[in-house]
Amino acid sequence: MQASQSPPPDHLRYLRDDDMPQAFQDLLSSLPLEEDWFPSLRLYQGFWFPSSLLSGIFNCQNHFQAYLSDILLVTNPKSGTTWLKAILFALLNRAKYSNSDSQGCHPLLTQNSHELVPYLEHKLYLEQENPDLSALASPRLLATHLPYSSLPQSVSDSKCKLVYLGRNPKDTFVSMWHFTNKLRPEGKGQIPIQECLNRFCRGVSPYGPYWDHVLGYHKASLEKPEKVLFVTYEQMKLDPRAHVRRLANFVGCPLNEEELRDETVEGVLRMCSFDNLSSLEVNKSGKLWNGLESKLFFRRGEVGDWVNYMSAEMGERIDGVVDEKLHGSGLKL
Ligand code: A3P
C-alpha cells in the first residue's frame, strides 16, 4: 500500500498488498500506479488491476489448468456478476433441487453466489499459489474479471466455455462509483463522481479500460462462438426467459421439453431475482471470504439508473468515448 493512502481497515485486509514477498513488491512497484482510485490500481498487460489482486492474477496465469468441461463466467466488475453467477449455478444444479422439499435447502438460500462460484484471481489463486481444484464437481463453474488477452494460456488453448456478461457503460460506471465509495475507509467520504468519471474516460477503472475489456470478449465471441457467449445485462433484463434458455444451451445443459413447459425457467429466475436474493438473511447480513459485506453487491439492479447520478452531459461524455472505441466492432452498449 502506498504511504500516502491510509491502509484499508482489517476487515478489508484482502485489499492490502504490503504483506507480499519483497520480490513481488519490487515487481509491483515497477508497474504504473493510479493511487487515487481506491483500492489503488496498477497497469499490467494493458489493463488497470487492483494492486492487491496482482499476486492472484500472476498465480492464476501461471498455474490454472482449464478442463474441457469448465465453464468460466467473465465480467467487468459491476456488470451483474452476482446475478449471472446465481443463474448459472441454479441452472447447472437444477435437477438436485427440482422438488419442493429440496428447493427449501437450495444453496443459494444460505450462501452468496460469490461463495458458490469462486473467482480465480480474487479468491482461489489469491489465497493459495496453486490450489488443488481437481476435486471441484464437474463441470467446474468458476469466475474471473480477467480481460481476454490476460486469461491463463490453458483457458485459451482449451475448449472450455466462457460466458461474458457486458453492461451499459454508464450503469456500470455508476454502480462502480457507489461500490468504490463503500470500500473507502471511514471518514474519507465519497469520491466526487466527476473525478471518477475523468478517470473512467481515460480508461482508468478496475480491470479497465472498460471498452478494451468488453471488446476483447466481443471479438472472441464472433471468432469462436462455440467457446465464448457474449450476453448483456440489458438483454437479460429484457427477456430473461430466452436468455436462461440460451445460457443453458451454451453451457451444455439444455432444458428438455418438459422443463420448457413446466415452471423450471421461472423457478430459476425467481430464485435469482434481485428481490429474492437481496432479501435473504445471508445477503443482508453475511460477509464474503474477503470480509466484504454481501449486501454491497445488491444496490438497485435496474437498467438506466445512471440518470439519477449523472447529468445528460456526463452521460454523453461516456457515450462519446465508448462509441468511438467500439466503432466498427458492431457492438453497441
Ligand atoms: P447496481 O449498482 O446498478 O444496482 P456485480 O455483481 O458485477 O458486482 O454487479 C453489481 C450490480 O448487479 C449492481 O448493480 C447490483 O445491484 C446488480 N445485481 C445484483 N444482483 C442482481 C440480481 N439478482 N438481478 C439483477 N441485478 C443484480
**Could you describe the largest sheet, including whether it forms a barrel?**
4 strands, parallel
| CATH architecture identity | 3-Layer(aba) Sandwich
Question: Helix/strand/pairing class, anyone?
Answer: alpha/beta
Strand order across the largest sheet: 5-4-6-7
The run of helices and strands is HEEEHEHHHHHEHEHHHEHHHHHHH
The helix tally amounts to 18
**How much strand?**
5-15%
CATH class: Alpha Beta
**Total of domains:** 1
**Distinct ligands:** adenosine-3'-5'-diphosphate
Distance between the termini: 35 Å
Mean pLDDT across the residues is 92
Number of strands: 7
Please identify which CATH superfamily we are dealing with. Answer: P-loop containing nucleotide triphosphate hydrolases
- C-alpha Rg, in Å? 19 Å
Helix content: 40-55%
Protein name: Sulfotransferase
Family: Belongs to the sulfotransferase 1 family.
Domain Sulfotransferase: 69-330
Keywords: Transferase
Summary?
The chain is an alpha/beta fold. The protein has helices spanning 22-30, 54-63, 81-92, 100-103, 107-110, 113-116, 120-127, 153-157, 169-183, 193-201, 210-223, 233-238, 240-250, 257-261, 264-272, 274-279, 281-285, 312-326; strands at residues 33-34, 41-44, 47-50, 71-75, 141-144, 161-166, 228-232.
